[in-house]
Write a structure and sequence with these properties.
Blueprint: E1 8-10, E2 32-34, E3 42-43, E4 56-58, E5 66-67, E6 80-82, E7 104-106, H1 119-127, E8 138-140, E9 147-149, H2 162-194, H3 196-207, E10 224-227, H4 233-245, E11 253-254, H5 256-259, H6 266-275, E12 280-284, H7 286-289, H8 292-308, E13 313-317, H9 328-336, E14 340-341, H10 347-354, H11 361-370, H12 373-384
Parallel strand pairs: 1-2, 2-4, 3-5, 4-6, 6-7, 10-11, 10-12, 12-13, 13-14
Antiparallel strand pairs: 8-9
């Protein structure tokens, strides 16, 4: 057997002081609710959240002192509302605007104050005379305690400067908008500051924009010297080299096994490679940390950074390594500088952003013509490999 549907509920004179938002959730089909003679100081609206079918609400003599502006927004079908003989001194502007089906309203016997804030009620009543179910609504002048019909109030009697009030309202609204906009700008600024590097990488990858363009030495034959352990050569040939040299226009990369000049000491080749490259890309792995030659390459690149006072060293961590296991200079650099991790999101975009702008084909030809013969031979070998 189904439970009966509750259409009317009488809760008058029960000394109710509080109604929770879920109090009526089990009777959503309720149409008439009597709450007269209780002690509900404030009507917030959350009390009626589940009463969308309510048509009549009685709150007479319930000690109501305040009704929030959106108190009745959950009651779209309400036709009868009684708020008589409460302790209301004022009502929020357009309090009843959500009650489009309202037919009867009782406000009699409250303590409304005759001031400029009550004028909206006068004009609302003039347009809805048939809704008021109990005579005139009165208010009291605080200065002389004289009662007056709200319908007879005027801005002149109350000394309401409506134009000034409207002007103040516009100023308040304008100030609020400015505060909101400034708050949004500050918030956006904080986000952009935290994601500054990501934004710079994105703008360069998408539009070729840089926030700060450093002067580059275009006379150097290489765009980058690639420093790595010979044990990581397969990774270099399969991933790093194609990613740099297969671009349009390509980067010119210096490698140990193909570009070092035969017969020249390795240490001298390393120093020359660093000097003749606009960047040094250091691919750090466990194999790299175990190699004395690799550490020499890092020291040479780091010395160039200090000499040029420009960060021309790009460090890539090929795998997870313990920083504490690294030599002191590499450990310090990792802890104090930004580095890339192989496999990170937007790895290639970040790497390309850290590189100098690729040279156009005409620049490459011009540089090759100006290079010494032994360097040109090495570069020609590069194009054949």
């Amino acid at each position: 057997m189904e439970a009966p549907i509750t259409r009317e509920l009488y809760l008058s004179k029960n000394n109710i002081t509080k109604i929770d938002s879920i109090s009526f959730s089990h009777i959503p089909l309720l149409e008439i609710l009597y709450l007269d003679g209780n002690n509900l100081e404030e009507i917030t609206g959350h009390q009626f959240m589940y009463l969308e079918n309510l048509r009549e609400l009685y709150l007479n003599r319930s000690g109501v002192r305040a009704v929030q502006k959106d108190a009745f927004r959950h009651l779209p079908l309400l036709q009868v509302l009684h708020l008589g003989h409460n302790l209301l001194k004022a009502l929020s502007n357009d309090l009843f605007s959500d009650l489009t089906n309202l037919q009867h309203l009782s406000l009699w016997g409250n303590c409304f104050v005759c001031d400029c804030d009550i004028l909206w009620l006068k004009y609302w009543m003039l347009n809805t005379k048939s809704i008021l179910s109990e005579g005139n609504v009165t208010c009291t002048h605080e200065q002389n305690q004289v009662q007056e019909n709200v319908g007879s109030l005027s801005s002149d009697i109350l000394h309401c400067d409506l134009a000034n009030a409207e002007r103040k309202s516009r100023i308040t609204i304008g100030f609020s908008i400015v505060v909101v906009l400034l708050s949004l700008l500050i918030l956006v600024g904080i986000v952009l500051h935290k994601r500054k590097e990501d934004l710079q990488v994105y703008l360069y990858a998408r539009y070729g924009w840089r926030f700060k363009e450093e002067r580059e030495n275009t006379d150097k034959p290489y765009d980058a010297f690639l420093s790595y352990s010979q044990h990581d050569l397969d990774f270099i040939l399969q991933h790093m080299l194609p990613g740099l040299e297969s671009r349009d226009p390509p980067f010119r990369v210096c490698l140990h096994h193909r570009d070092f000049i035969p017969g020249v000491p390795i240490a001298e080749n390393i120093l020359t490679a660093v000097e003749e490259s606009r960047r040094t890309i250091v691919v750090v792995s466990r194999n790299f940390l175990d190699s004395d030659w690799c550490q020499l390459e890092f020291q040479a690149a780091h010395a160039q950074v200090l000499r040029d006072r420009a960060n021309r060293l790009i460090m890539i961590l090929l795998e997870e390594i313990s920083v504490d296991d690294a030599p002191p200079e590499i450990k310090h650099y990792i802890k104090t500088h930004t580095y890339l991790r192989w496999g990170d999101e937007r790895f290639w975009e970040r790497l390309v952003y850290a590189m100098p702008r690729p040279r156009q084909p005409e620049e490459l030809v011009q540089n090759m013509e100006q290079e010494p013969s032994e360097t040109r031979v090495a570069l020609q070998q590069t194009t054949r490999v």
